[in-house]
């Protein structure tokens, strides 16, 4: 009997603790209001911000967090979640209120379409309509930055071979396959908006390609070394591209899908807090490929903290102060 | 791992009869299970309506290629492990070299304790090359310990009375090693090898990181694309392969051990 009561007490404590538990941690750096000032509607509102587990996503996550802190919200930090799918699940289940995601990822990975839409605005509109209808998720404040797939080459190899565009690359594969060895990540290797689709669009004979499948992170270094892979699949805004002096091949037939960053939240959240999109839209507008690549470079090449990089940029833009 | 080595390392002759029967039953059931798993998962996957993206991974020629790469990696790892660990273990139990044992066992311990993925990445960073051997070498280092440890253990458990008896018959040290010590150590070495084999199959799923291929490609592709069919095919085939090599190891233990102890 006593054991049962002890068990009940223990269970009660555990339940109580579970209710008190909140996911996420505190925002890592302090900021004060500047260009972004306190918004009464957001004062003290608890908002959880998430991101995926790579540099650019961490930076984008911190940009949202600092902006909302300056606006007076009570922000919880859930950045650095492993992989797109986990972030998406966390958003669908309401563990995360807000995150930057990519239009191509939404259209292809989350909604399961195989063919992207070539124009970035049309892609955004199609995705917004479909995701709202299917999952009550709102996409808004699309940024000009487009973190799509690209083939990269070291500057030396580019000058040596004269390959500047994907059409040049296709020609090189055809005439001298040994000079066009290519490293690709597992995902890019099978995606229809990755290598197979690219090969079809540019008329590349996949039987001729000397292709190696490696880990994404290895692709950058191996392409820069240019011994075993002279070309490599990369993400277009990665900071290691300027850091390792790689050149992106121009997608002259506009094959690769658009992966513009945009803000994602549930429809309920968007309705309850319209001020969030209003605050974030001008920030999104400033995020071009040049800007985000430079911020990524400061983290990946100079070894700075993503939170520091994000805050310094916002301070330089006059949005917030170092609180 | 130690527990597994200890339980499997007991020489056959000391086992009670029921355990022997269970072992025989397992020898029969395990290959059937491997067959069921393989056929089951392939039928399940290939009879579905696959998207074009899934077909790029899950076509017969690709599945055969990555499975073959996986087998090749595992087999090479095992050959390297046997070639290094058995002579090394033999040397380290000879008089005069015993003092060195802690050093080598320590190094092998480091290899087994370090995360395999870390070893693979370090190996890539140190050599700046990709390919088969960069995928194989770290896994071989990783799987060295069970065989080395069991080889040493195998020699240590030989009853000194038997060695004395050999000497009494005028055998030289090499003859004692060849005719008494080594045959008696074989069951232990094989038990260690079996553990190594299963470790190698599991960690070979990571060797795709450096372009060595293997079933890890299917697992990683499936995970990244949220394509559970590809992921499950890769994972289940790796499980089937692990069971298969474990079965081969069991067969080897059954038939390669010393005749007198069978």
UniProtKB/TrEMBL annotation, chain B:
It comes from the Bacteria. PROSITE patterns: ABC_TM1 (PS50928). It is found in: Cell membrane; Membrane. Keywords: Membrane, Transmembrane, Transmembrane helix, Transport. SUPFAM superfamilies: MetI-like (SSF161098). The chain crosses the membrane at residues 24-46, 66-91, 103-125, 131-148, 197-219, 231-252. The keyword Heme does not apply. Its main location: membrane. InterPro entries: ABC_transp_perm/SBD, MetI-like, MetI-like_sf. It is a multi-pass membrane protein. Gene3D superfamilies: MetI-like (1.10.3720.10). Residues 67-249 form the ABC transmembrane type-1 domain. Belongs to the binding-protein-dependent transport system permease family. This is ABC transporter permease subunit.
């Amino acid at each position: 009997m006593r054991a049962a009561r002890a068990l009940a007490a223990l269970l009660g404590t555990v339940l109580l603790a579970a209710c008190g538990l909140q996911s996420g941690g505190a925002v890592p750096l302090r900021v004060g209001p500047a260009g972004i000032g306190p918004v009464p509607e957001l004062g003290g509102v608890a908002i959880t911000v998430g991101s995926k587990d790579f540099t650019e996503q961490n930076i984008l996550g911190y940009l949202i967090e600092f902006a909302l802190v300056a606006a007076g919200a009570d922000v919880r930090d859930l950045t650095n979640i492993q992989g797109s799918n986990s972030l998406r699940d966390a958003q669908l289940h309401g563990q995360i209120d807000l995150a930057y995601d990519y239009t191509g990822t939404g259209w292809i990975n989350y909604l399961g379409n195989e063919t992207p839409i070539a124009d970035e605005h049309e892609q955004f509109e199609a995705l917004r309509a479909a995701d709202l209808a299917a999952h009550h998720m709102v996409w808004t404040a699309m940024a000009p930055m487009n973190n799509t797939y690209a083939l990269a080459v070291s500057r030396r190899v580019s000058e040596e071979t004269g390959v500047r565009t994907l059409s040049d690359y296709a020609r090189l594969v055809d005439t001298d396959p040994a000079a066009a060895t290519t490293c690709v990540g597992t995902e890019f290797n099978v995606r229809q908006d990755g290598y197979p689709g690219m090969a079809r669009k540019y008329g590349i004979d996949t039987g001729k390609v000397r292709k190696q499948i490696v880990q994404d992170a290895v692709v950058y270094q191996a392409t820069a070394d240019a011994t075993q892979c002279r070309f490599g699949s990369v993400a277009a805004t990665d900071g290691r591209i300027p850091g390792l002096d790689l050149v992106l091949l121009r997608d002259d037939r506009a094959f690769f899908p658009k992966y513009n960053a945009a803000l994602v939240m549930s429809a309920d959240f968007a309705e309850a807090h319209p001020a969030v999109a209003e605050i974030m839209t001008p920030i999104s507008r400033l995020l071009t490929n040049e800007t985000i690549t430079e911020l990524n470079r400061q983290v990946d090449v100079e070894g700075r903290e993503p939170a520091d990089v994000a805050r310094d940029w916002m301070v330089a833009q006059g949005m917030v102060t170092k609180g | 791992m130690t527990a597994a080595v200890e339980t499997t390392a007991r020489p056959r002759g000391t086992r009670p009869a029921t355990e022997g029967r269970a072992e025989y039953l397992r020898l029969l059931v395990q290959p059937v299970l491997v067959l069921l798993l393989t056929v089951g998962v392939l039928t399940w996957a290939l009879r579905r309506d696959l998207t074009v993206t899934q077909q790029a991974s899950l076509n017969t020629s690709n599945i055969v290629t990555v499975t073959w790469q996986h087998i090749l990696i595992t087999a090479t790892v095992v050959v390297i492990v046997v070639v290094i660990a058995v002579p090394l273990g033999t040397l380290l139990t000879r008089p005069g070299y015993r003092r060195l044992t802690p050093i080598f066992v320590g190094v092998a311990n480091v290899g087994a304790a370090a995360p395999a993925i870390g070893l693979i990445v370090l190996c890539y960073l140190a050599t700046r090359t990709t390919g088969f051997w960069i995928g194989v070498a770290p896994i071989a280092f990783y799987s060295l310990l069970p065989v080395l440890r069991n080889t040493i253990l195998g020699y240590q458990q030989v009853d000194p009375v038997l060695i004395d008896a050999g000497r009494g018959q005028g055998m030289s040290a090499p003859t004692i090693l060849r005719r008494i010590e080594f045959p008696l150590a074989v069951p232990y070495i094989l038990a260690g090898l079996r553990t190594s084999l299963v470790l190698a199959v599991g960690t070979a799923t990571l060797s795709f990181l450096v372009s060595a291929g293997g079933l890890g490609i299917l697992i990683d592709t499936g995970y990244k694309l949220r394509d559970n069919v590809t992921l499950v095919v890769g994972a289940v085939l790796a499980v089937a392969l692990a069971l298969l090599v474990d079965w081969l190891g069991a067969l080897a233990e059954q038939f390669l051990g010393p005749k007198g102890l069978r």
